[in-house]
Amino acid sequence: MDNLSSLQRFNIDELAAQVTEQYQNFVVNEVNDSCLRLAVFTGEYPWHRHPDADELFMVLEGELFIDFEERETVALRPHDIFTVPAGVIHRTRAEQRTVNLCFERAAATTEFIS
């Protein structure tokens, strides 16, 4: 494998500006066994948990709310960082367009709660 093939520049603002859908979440890049995801959305993501991985959020634009079953909602604004521990049931929501980064294990699994 050619190690130089991973030498690529990404501009998060440019990637976010290309999103036209109400919800889009994708992997920007992977490092070791972790990945950096970019999420651009308005609305609610379903209740879920990641049984085997913590999930770190960093808001770049807008306001992201993280709701929990057993604690108060956390509101994140630009440059705020918050980590949801593995196994904790939560959902994310945004009343207006929100751009955020998520750092997690690349092989993290998601269990949706009905």
Automatic annotation (TrEMBL):
State which residue ranges cross the membrane: none
In this chain the Cupin type-2 domain maps to: 44-96
**Cited Gene3D superfamilies:** Jelly Rolls
* One Pfam family matching this protein: Cupin_2
Q: Name one GO molecular function term.
A: manganese ion binding
Q: Which protein are we looking at? A: Cupin type-2 domain-containing protein
Protein source organism: Dictyobacter kobayashii
> Top-down, what is the taxonomic lineage of the species of origin?
Bacteria, Bacillati, Chloroflexota, Ktedonobacteria, Ktedonobacterales
